[in-house]
Amino acid sequence: MKFTYKCTDCGSTFEIKPELTVCPACATKQEPETPLTGVLEVVLEGQAPEGWEVMDLLPVPEEFFPPAPVGDTPLWEPRNLRREYGAPNLYIKDDGANPTSSFKDRASYLVSAFARQHGIEDIVLASTGNAGSSMAGIGAAAGQRVTLFLPEAAPPAKIIQALQYGARVFKVRGNYDFAYALSQEYSKAHGGMNRNTAYNPMTMEGKKTVSLEIFRQLGRVPDHVFVPTGDGCIIGGVFKGFLDLKRLDITDRMPTIWCVQSDKSDAINRALENGKFEKISSSTLADSISVDVPANGRPVLRWMKEHGGRAVTVEDASIPRAQAKLSSSTGLFTEPAGATAFAGFLAVKDQLPKDDTFVVLATGNGLKDTNTAMKGVNAPDVVIESLNDIP
Ligand SMILES: *Cc1c(COP(=O)(O)O)cnc(C)c1O
């Protein structure tokens, strides 16, 4: 199998090397406060080996990956929800089961391997929380040094995780977009590998593994995949994975890929409607999908149009309710961003054939942000001393 980079804007192709992050020509057209131009996609050529494995379709050889059990996450068959909604083929892909409890490990794993392949020991990034705690954990497994820029409002559990894994953590006065800018500046000054979403092509490439796994677990391409979306790197990866399976003639189908966003952070869905990206000011309580300028927005918008992707925007207040509904009906407690995909499924399920195969991505463990999760439940407000005190 042969791997190269291709610019998702102009189509130029390049040899893969760590110094190259975005297309040099398209990068000169970057406007401030707009999605990244010149995002590079990994293109694979050749034929998948007989009885292929996910590793066979990745651009870095297996020997460079750190010893951490990333991916291969469970595909739940939620019996109670299937009955309640009359949807016998509903599945939940539980990416909270990754080593650092979020989907981001799929990207960190490949980035770590890519750095190791090229003898790079320092990795830098900005994150709303999960990418940072993920890179810190996977970097710890690999023995790499990780430097993080996090917005000061990042949930404490995610900061604590990163510190536990031994990363150097800078809390930034400002939002994720500002942390992103600072991390880019830091990389320019200090070198190492930058793992920023979309800016490092291996982030989207690593995330494609979820589609390959879903295909292997189901034995087919599902009809629908619901993806909680902020920067658009996960949904880009979901497209990429299924497109790779098509390119390799492993299937001739694509699922309908649903871009699920909160109405308080809906840059991509708005752009799909209006034809262009506008600056928004996000305020969703699902911190992992709170993004003003979606870094990976350009390729996602294109793939959504070309491959029948669909948008669903959910009310922010519906997210904690969807979260509690999922937890209490299945036993799967996912963080607010993860529950957003489920809220998206709930919003559109009645327009879709009940027998279709639905896969909902639950992208992070619920314990990562307990403050928000409290909004969807009633905490006991009396403290009892005997059973007589029970109201
Ligand atoms: C990062 C993240 C998302 C959104 O991914 P994008 O690539 O930013 O669209 C969704 N859920 C969780 C738990 C995340 O950490």
Q: Give the CATH level 1 class of the domain at 75-101 and 203-376.
A: Alpha Beta
CATH topology of the domain at 75-101 and 203-376: Rossmann fold
What is the mean predicted local confidence, pLDDT? 96
* Main sheet specs: 6 strands, mixed
How much helicity do the residues have? 25-40%
Query: Element order, helices and strands?
Result: EEHEEHEHEHEHEHEHHEHEHHEHHEH
CATH architecture of the domain at 75-101 and 203-376: 3-Layer(aba) Sandwich
What strand line-up does the widest sheet have? Answer: 4-5-13-10-11-12
Q: How would you name the oligomeric state of the polypeptide chains in this document?
A: single chain
Write out the distinct hetero groups bound to the structure: pyridoxal-5'-phosphate
- Number of DSSP-assigned strands: 13
Descriptive notes:
The protein is α/β, with parallel strands linked by helices and 391 residues long. It has a domain of 201 residues: Rossmann fold (3-Layer(aba) Sandwich). 36% of the residues lie in helices and 16% in strands. The strands form three sheets. The chain has a six-stranded mixed beta sheet, sandwiched between helices. It has a four-stranded parallel beta sheet with strand order 8-7-6-9, with helices on both faces. The chain has a three-stranded antiparallel beta sheet with strand order 2-1-3, with helices on one face. Strand 7, helix 5 and strand 8 form a beta-alpha-beta unit. Helix 3 crosses helix 4 and helix 12 packs across helix 13. It is globular, with a radius of gyration of 20 Å. The chain starts with a strand and ends in an 18-residue tail after the last helix. The structure holds pyridoxal-5'-phosphate. The site of pyridoxal-5'-phosphate has 20 residues, from helix 9 and helix 13. The site of pyridoxal-5'-phosphate (PLP) has 20 residues, from helix 9 and helix 13.
